[in-house]
Every structure is written in structure tokens, then in C-alpha cells.
Amino acid sequence: xxxxxxxxxxxxxxxxxxxxxxxxxxxxxxxxxxxxxxxxxxxxxxxxxxxxxxxxxxxxxxxxxxxxxxxxxxxxxxxxxxxxxxxxxxxxxxxxxxxxxxxxxxxxxxxxxxxxxxxxxxxxxxxxxxxxxxxxxxx
Length: 139
Known about the structure:
Layout: E1 40-42, E2 50-55, E3 61-68, E4 70-75, E5 80-91, H1 96-100, E6 103-104, E7 109-114, E8 117-123, H2 127-130, E9 134-137
Parallel strand pairs: 1-3, 4-9
Antiparallel strand pairs: 1-6, 2-3, 4-5, 5-7, 7-8, 8-9
């Protein structure tokens, strides 16, 4: 992905080029606008997982996952949670290009490896917002 500059504010000028007095206070809303999309990918073999911290409102800190190897999967029948390795992204309803690029977002369908067997899981967390990947095992 490219790091492109994002403009989150309204233009301070009218189409005629005159200053727009009503939009002069938009600088206060800058903190409420969105940030960059952290395309969470599957970590390359032999490289560690990558996470970055970002400042949030109220002095809080947000952890963004950039590359992950594992997912915490819950089996809905037994109600048990376990750690599994992510093999690939099968489908991503957010964008079909994300599945081809192995980008993980919420509701993505991933292929996981559990005790040597390959299973499917649906991602229920937002890795770019929470820093972790959690999901539900599918039948």
C-alpha cells in the first residue's frame, strides 16, 4: 500500500475562490476524522508479526496490526478458544482484491491450520483497530 496524504477537512474556499466563513472552524473536527487504513496482512514466514501504536482521542493509544500469523478461534459448539495459524485469506466481503492480496479485515474468511488439519474461520475482530485477530470456527 502507498502512504498517500489524506485531506480530511472541507475546503476553506468557495467555488468562486472567496473565503468561506462558515468553514473556518473545521480545524476542531480534525481529531474526529478517520486515519490511514492499516492493511493487515499475513506475516511472511520467518519474519515477526508487526504492530504499530497510534494516538487516539483522550490521550488513549490504539494498536494497529500490520502483519499477523495467528488467530484466536472460538469453536461455537464447545465454547472453547484456541490459537491457530493463518494460512491464507479465502474470501473478503469488504473487497475481493483483499482476498487476492491476503489482507485481513472483519468478516474475512480465512483458512487456518489446527493440529495439522486445515479449517475455515470467520474474522470477528477489527485487526486494524484492535491489533489482534479473533474469529469463529466454521463447519
